[in-house]
Amino acid sequence: MSFLKNMFGSSNEEITTSKVNWIQLVDLGQLKEIIDTSTEKPALIFKHSTRCSISRMVLKQFENEFDLKDKITPYFLDLLEHRDISNEIANRFGVTHQSPQLIIIKNGVSIYDASHESINADDLQKFV
Question: What's the whole-model pTM score?
Answer without folding.
Answer: 0.84
